[in-house]
Amino acid sequence: MITPHEGVLAPELEVAAARDLCTDCGISRTDDAKDCGVACQFIKPDYAGLERRVHGRARDEARVDEVYFGPFNRMVRASLKPAKTDAQWTGIATRIGERLLETKAVDAVLAVAPDAADRWKPVPVMVTTPAGMAAVRGMRMGYAPLLALLEPAKAAGFKRLAVIGIPCQVYALRALEKKYGFERIYVIGTPCSDNTTTENFHVFLNLLSDAPETVTYLEFRADYHVELRFTDGTVREIPFLQLPISQLPGDFFPLTCRTCVDYTNVLADITVGYMAGQGEQWLLVRNERGEELVALLGDELKVAALGSAGKRQGAVKGFLKNTELAAGGLPLRRMPNVLRHVVGWLMPRVGPRGLEFARARVEMKAVETVLHLRRQRPGRMKNMIPRHVWTLVEGYGVTPREGETH
Ligand SMILES: Cc1cc2nc3c(=O)[nH]c(=O)nc-3n(C[C@H](O)[C@H](O)[C@H](O)COP(=O)(O)OP(=O)(O)OC[C@H]3O[C@@H](n4cnc5c(N)ncnc54)[C@H](O)[C@@H]3O)c2cc1C
Ligand code: SF4
Ligand code: SF4
User: What CA–CA distance (Å, rounded) separates 5 from 29?
Assistant: First the structure.
C-alpha cells in the first residue's frame, strides 16, 4: 500500500509464483506466469539478440567501453539544474518521466513508490500525471514486481508507456514487449548491483544506526563512502571500511544479485546512473529513443565530458583474490588485511576514478558472477554467462573450464 497521491495508481497484484533464482520482476504474477521461461535473465539470456532488436546492433567489441557498458551512442556526465529535492541524485529519472507526461508522449510511467508503512519497500505504481512523479523519487532497496503492471496498464487502455527499472526488470520487459503490443515503450534504466530483500536491508540499517527508522536516504557513493540522511536533516558519511558488513549473514546478498550479468542496464534506451560521474550523474544514451528523452530535458540538463583516471587492475585483482578465498557472499570486509590492500588501491585519490571506476566495478561484478556460479550453480554457467563476461575476466586469469560455455 502506498500513501495516496493524485495520478498514482497502485493496482492489487497477484502473489508471486515460486521460482529458483528470481528477483520477482513481476512476470510470475501475470496470467502467463510461464513467460518466465523466455523472459528471465537467470535462465538463458540472449543479450546480443535483444541488443540487436532494441538498439539495431549488438555491442561493438571494437569500441572497448561497449564490452563493459553495452551499446551506447554517447556517454556524458550530467546534472539536472535545479536538482529535484528528495531524488536519489539530481532527479534526472524523475524529470524524464514528468516531461513524458507533460508532453503527452506517454499515458503512464511505470515506476516504484515507497510503501506507506516502510519507505524502503518498493511498490509498483502507474503514474499518470506529471505531479504524480514526485511520489516515486529516490531509491528503495528491494525487489519490486514492476512488470506485473503490464496487464493492468493494458486493461486501463494505456497505449504509450515509459518504464523506469533496474536491469533484471528491463531484460524481461524487452523479452516480452512485443507480446504486450503497446504502441510505444520508453525505457529509462538505472544501473543496479548488490540489491537484496527489503527485510535484509533493514538488518543492515539496524547495524548502521540506533534510530534506523529516521534514515531517509542511503547511497553507496563512488568515493567509497556511504551517505546516510536522516529525518532531522543531518547527514552522515561512513567510509566503506567502517561498515558493519562482517556482522551480516552470509546470504545477505541473494545469489541472483551476486551473479547477474547486467550492471549497467544495457537494454534501456537511456541509463541514468552515477558510477562514472565523479560526484555527478552518468548518462548512457543508447539509441535514438534515448536521444529523444534527453532532448525533453532541454536546458535543465547540464552535461560535461566524463573523466577517467587511475588504474583499475590492482583493485580488481585484490577483489578477485578475496572472492576466491571467501566461502560465500560478502567476502571483502571479512578479511581485514586483504581489505586494507583493496581499499588502499581504491582510495579516491589514487584508485580508479570516473570511467575507470565504472570499468572496475563492472569487472568486479563479472568476477563475482563466474566465481559464485562456479561454486553454487555450475550447471547454470553455460547458459547464464554471455561471452562478453568471459572477455572481462580473462585478463585476470579467469577462463572457462570444460562445460562452462557452449
Ligand atoms: C537497488 C539499486 C541499486 C543501484 N545501484 C547503483 C550502482 O551501483 N551504480 C549506479 O550508478 N547506480 C545505481 N543505482 C541507481 C541510482 O541509485 C539512481 O537511482 C540513479 O542514479 C538515478 O538517480 P536520479 O536522481 O535520476 O533518480 P530519481 O529521479 O530519484 O528516480 C529514482 C527512480 O528509481 C526507481 N527505483 C527506486 N528504487 C527502485 C527499486 N528498488 N527497484 C526498481 N526501481 C527503483 C524509482 O521508481 C524512480 O523512478 C541503483 C538503484 C537501485 C534501485
Ligand atoms: S525474475 Fe521475473 S522472469 Fe525471472 S523467474 Fe522471477 S518473475 Fe520470472
Ligand atoms: S543486482 Fe542484478 S539481479 Fe539484483 S536486483 Fe539488481 S539487476 Fe536485479
Answer: 25
